[in-house]
Amino acid sequence: MSTAQPPGGNWNDPHSPVVPPPPVVPPPPPSVPPLASSPLPPPAEPSPRPAPPATGPDVPPRAAAGSPVATAATDRSRRLLITLAIACAVLLLTTVGFGATAAWLWLDRGTAASAEPTPSPSPGTSGEPTNAPQQVRGYEVTVVSEIVFGDFAMTAPDSNGYTILFATMTNESSNQVANHFFDITAYREDGTIIERRSTGAYILPNQTTLFQGIFAEDISDAAAIRIEQSRTEWVEPALTGDITLDAARSGEEGYIEGDFTSGLSAAAEYSDIFIVGFVEGEIFAVCSDLEDIPAAGGTFAAECYLEPASKGDLVDPGEIPEDATFAAYLSVDTLFGD
After folding, report:
1. H or E element at residue 135
2. 205 and 166 fall within a common domain
3. Burial profile 268-304: b = 16 or more Cβ within 10 angstroms, e = fewer
4. What are the CA-CA distances from residue 266 to residues 239, 241, 269 (Å)?
5. At which of 235, 252, 281 does a domain end?
6. Residue 10 domain-assigned?
7. DSSP structure class, residue 263
8. Closest-CA residue to 203 (of 293, 34, 332)
9. pTM reported for the whole predicted model
10. Per-run averaged pLDDT (10 residues), the chain, 338 residues
11. In which domain, by residue range, is 219 found?
């Protein structure tokens, strides 16, 4: 049986020399190329110190503190600062003022919207009443005019909310047409205005016609009504004369018909004919019809349904009182003479 010998000698022979194994040499490391050398930047140059202020005959020296030049410069600076401060203060006050005004208008907008307007009458209406005040359905009615007004009467509001105030009115001039305009205003007890409207009248010489003022608003809260002449114009008449009611016939539900004779110097188209019912000298009903009026001597007819109008309690026009009388009034358009 053979036995493997250890390297370097016989293990069973003590006299056999032991030869140590050769040393293990590690392999050399891989070669690494040397780093490329980069030149270092040159050191930065030190910053030069600022040059000392120039001196010489062409350079003025700095003013020393407390010198007149330095004091003047300081005064100018102070004045400039004071001016700027004042300007800033004015701008601030103006801004605050505008802001306060805007806030007041914003807060007051509800009051301004709800306040009742109190406009001034049209030019030429100021003055004391020319007619004695009249009580008409609970309202005190006064007039400021050179035209003579008679008794007033008023309707109840109709289905559209319109209320009409009537009165006879007379032009006492024998040779001039009164082409006048009026403001008619309803006032509350405290003097605020409910409504103001305008109306006109073209009244022939020596003619009595019918005034009508129409309110479109609810005037139930009114305490007074004032009629004020707003424009006065006396012109040469393009038409003279009047009409005559020859006969009147009443029917059911306030229907009335009238026969007329013209006394006008010329024909007048689109003229209003008012038929007015009176009881004991006071108006109790009114109605109107639009007609073409012939020249003097011509005859024509007009018809309408009476509407209750009175100073006090209204009378049903369907039940015309037995003692009622009727009169007719011509109203020529205000543009007739143009």
Report:
1. strand 134-136
2. yes
3. beebbbbbbbbbeeebbbbbbbebebbeeeeeeebeb
4. 6, 9, 10
5. 235
6. no
7. -
8. 332
9. 0.62
10. 49 50 55 48 53 50 50 61 67 58 45 38 55 92 94 95 96 94 96 95 94 95 96 91 95 92 94 95 96 96 96 88 93 66
11. 134-235
